[in-house]
Amino acid sequence: MKLASIFAIAVLTNEIAAVKVSHLPDVRPELVADSDIAAHEAARDEAAAVKKNPQQDLLTSITSDLDQINKDNSFGISFSQHTRNEHAK
Fold it and tell me: Each residue of 33-80: pLDDT tens digit?
């Protein structure tokens, strides 16, 4: 039985090998053009550039507000900190 299986596989393998598979021709250019490389590098440079955060002014004002709130609440009444005490009132 094993011999018959091996023979059947061998016959099928020979039949598959006899079938010629044709592919479509490769119509792409052999080399990438220098202009394509330059355009790709320019796009990578632009993508890698650090852009300014459009909400930076808002974040700065929030930071200063939170810092002032922290200063106002971080200590009790102190005579040496008169201006800070007046602001905290």
Answer: 888 889 999 999 988 887 888 899 999 999 999 988 887 776 665 556
Cβ proximity of 71 and 84 under 8 Å: yes
Whole-angstrom distance, CA of residue 82 vs CA of residue 79? 5
CA distances from 31 to 24, 26, 27, 44, 79 (A): 19, 13, 12, 20, 79
Stronger pLDDT, 55 or 20, i.e. the higher one: 55
Q: Among 28, 10, 6, 26, which residue's Cα sits nearest to residue 18?
A: 10
Alpha helices in the chain (DSSP H): 2-18, 34-48, 56-73, 82-88
